[in-house]
């Protein structure tokens, strides 16, 4: 005696196979929904999640489903992933107008069990990809910091890379103030950061107590959280504030706010961002130590060069000048006398220039000021970690004195957007930035012109030899 065939088994096998054919979570959920509708003859099917923020997915539906199925004439089963209820699978509108049967419910339970396995696999895959991106990002930042960037450029590199990895609206670095608070010193955004830089969290803030204690702070909505007291909080929603701490030393805080209404950070994202902040802090400390050693070596070289110039070059030039003067006094030929006179004058001028160079070498080099030129160079340094190379920058005219602060802010915003667009073009290996403060606008007014040219492949699939050029200009 043979067992009777189980009704619906071949379609169930097809459905089980179809839900496990992809490792992308949204695609996996769509396969589940489509298989459930096909398996039971339902016109409408949907999967809703119990925690939309956990996976960034709220609901997946069949095409044409106007909304979540109502209670009447529907069938629903839970989807279990391990010990957790991931969500529920809904069916509505049985073809032919009849009710869903007990067999439909059995098939749906079997499909839901397989769906739980497929969703678990998709989560593992997405987690692995997410970890890989953060690890690569941390390695890129470490490499950039340890290959010779100034302190301000290093902070921008950390902020910019973290913003991109976290899909955040901004990457912000805060550092402790003398009064016990924390101040935003660097802000990386695709939009104009406005008045973010210089914003201070006052001493005694509950958030500050945690940060100064080396604890990360996770915020669901920056605009409504009573712990947030800055005037820029209303711009943002979910946020992470991560201490940059290495060897017991608190360098500052990395803040990664998302826009209002964006999905909250998942536990995995919080963990990876915290690990990134720890590695970035260590890289900053190592880079600072390396810069200190390099500065010491530079000082020693400058002292040596100054001594050599004085002991060897200046003394020999001076002796040569004395010999020429003596020869000039003994000479009776007018043309020789004139030639010797010019030679003596040139030697005296050279001696003065060398002495000026010696004096300059003996002075300690000052830290670069936060000038407009420095801010442009900081933007190029921030993109270096993303591009793998540093864009070149050229300035024409007195950019520091001719460009007002408001125009400078708009120019930097345009530069930031142009660099972001260039970084997304294929085969980009060179980006050239030109800031011309002597430009004349089409209407004849004095202005400033920003030009960003890259050699990437054009949108029409061309060879990319001519590249793409972006031009922005403003009156002064």
> Could you tell me how far the N terminus lies from the C terminus, measured between alpha carbons in angstroms?
95 Å
Topology order in helix (H) and strand (E) letters: HHEHEEEHHEEEHEEEHHHEHHEEE
Give the helix level as a range of percent: 40-55%
What does the largest sheet look like? Answer: 6 strands, antiparallel
Rg over CA atoms: 33 Å
Count up the helices. 11
Residue-averaged pLDDT: 78
Spans of at least 5 consecutive residues whose pLDDT stays below 50 are 1-6
Apparent shape: elongated
Strand order of the largest sheet: 7-6-5-10-9-8
Structural class: alpha+beta
Which percent band covers the strand fraction?
A: 15-25%
Q: How many strand segments? A: 14
Structural overview:
With 476 residues, the protein is α+β, with helices and mostly antiparallel strands. The protein has eleven helices and 14 strands. The protein has helices at residues 9-19, 25-40, 52-55, 102-145, 151-166, 206-212, 267-330, 334-361, 372-387, 399-402, 405-423; strands at residues 42-49, 59-61, 74-81, 84-94, 170-176, 182-189, 200-201, 217-219, 236-246, 249-259, 392-396, 431-440, 446-454, 468-475. The strands form three sheets. A six-stranded antiparallel β-sheet has the order 7-6-5-10-9-8, sandwiched between helices. Strand 5 (170-176) and strand 6 (182-189) form a beta hairpin. It is elongated and about 125 Å long.
What attributes characterize this protein structure?
single chain; 476 residues; alpha+beta; 6-stranded antiparallel β-sheet; 4-stranded antiparallel β-sheet; elongated; disordered N terminus
């Amino acid at each position: 005696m043979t067992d009777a065939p189980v009704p619906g088994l071949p379609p169930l096998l097809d459905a089980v196979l179809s839900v496990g054919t992809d490792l992308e979570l949204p695609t996996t959920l769509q396969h589940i929904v489509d298989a459930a509708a096909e398996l039971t003859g339902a016109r409408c099917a949907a999967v809703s999640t119990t925690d939309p923020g956990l996976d960034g997915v709220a609901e997946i539906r069949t095409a044409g489903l106007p909304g979540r199925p109502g209670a009447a004439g529907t069938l629903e089963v839970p989807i279990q992933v391990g010990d957790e209820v991931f969500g529920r699978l809904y069916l509505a509108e049985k073809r032919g107008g009849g009710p869903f049967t007990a067999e439909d419910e059995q098939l749906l339970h079997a499909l839901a069990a397989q769906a739980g396995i497929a969703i678990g696999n998709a989560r593992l895959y997405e987690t692995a990809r997410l970890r890989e991106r953060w690890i690569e990002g941390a390695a890129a930042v470490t490499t950039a910091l340890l290959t010779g960037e100034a302190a301000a450029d290093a902070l921008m590199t950390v902020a910019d890379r973290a913003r991109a990895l976290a899909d955040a609206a901004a990457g912000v670095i805060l550092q402790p103030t003398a009064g016990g608070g924390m101040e935003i010193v660097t802000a990386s955004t695709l939009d104009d950061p406005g008045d973010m830089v210089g914003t201070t969290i006052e001493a005694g803030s509950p958030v500050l107590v945690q940060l100064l204690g080396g604890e990360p702070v996770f915020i669901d909505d920056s605009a409504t959280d009573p712990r947030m007291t800055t005037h820029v909080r209303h711009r943002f929603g979910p946020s992470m504030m991560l201490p940059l701490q290495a060897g017991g030393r608190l360098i500052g805080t990395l803040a990664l706010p998302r826009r209002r209404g964006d999905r909250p950070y998942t536990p995995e994202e919080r963990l990876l961002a915290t690990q990134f902040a720890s590695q970035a802090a260590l890289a900053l400390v190592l880079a600072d130590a390396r810069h200190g050693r390099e500065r010491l070596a530079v000082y020693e070289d400058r002292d040596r060069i100054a001594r050599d110039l004085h002991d060897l070059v200046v003394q020999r030039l001076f002796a040569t000048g004395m010999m020429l003067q003596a020869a000039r006094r003994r000479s009776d030929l007018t043309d020789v006398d004139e030639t010797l006179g010019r030679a003596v004058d040139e030697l005296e001028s050279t001696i003065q220039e060398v002495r000026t160079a010696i004096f300059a070498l003996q002075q300690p080099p000052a830290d670069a000021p936060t000038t407009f030129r420095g801010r442009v160079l900081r933007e190029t340094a921030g993109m270096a970690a993303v591009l793998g190379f540093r864009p070149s920058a050229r300035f024409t005219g007195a950019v520091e004195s001719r460009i007002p602060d408001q125009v400078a802010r708009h120019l930097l915003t345009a530069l930031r957007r142009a660099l972001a667009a260039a970084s997304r073009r294929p085969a980009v290996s060179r980006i050239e930035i030109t800031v011309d403060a002597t430009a004349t606008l089409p209407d004849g007014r004095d202005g400033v012109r920003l030009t960003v040219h890259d050699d990437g492949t054009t949108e029409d699939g061309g060879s990319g030899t001519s590249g793409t050029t972006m031009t922005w200009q403003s009156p002064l």
